[in-house]
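Protein modeling request. Please complete all fields; requests missing the sequence field cannot be processed.
Requester role: graduate student
Desired output: 3D structure, token encoding
Chains: 1
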Amino acid sequence: MSVAQIVFTTDPSLKKKTLEKLKTEGSTLKSLLQYTMRAYLQWRISLGIITDDDMRTPELESDYQQKAKDFSQGKNIVERNALVKKHNK
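Delivered output (89 residues):
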């Protein structure tokens, strides 16, 4: 079985708090990330629009504004059911 390594940066406080919570549940960061990736591929979770103003960064705001512009122009719009049907073939 081949494996792939994923490397990324994150907020140290977020990582620390996540690891602490995972430890109380008897789990690992690796398990959480693998579960999340599988759930995403199986349409059990999806990414949504961030509405919490405290979480918005200039980068997220810029991305949101572009997505909102695309939506208003009818661009890059895909029905969730169509995606599920397409990927479950």
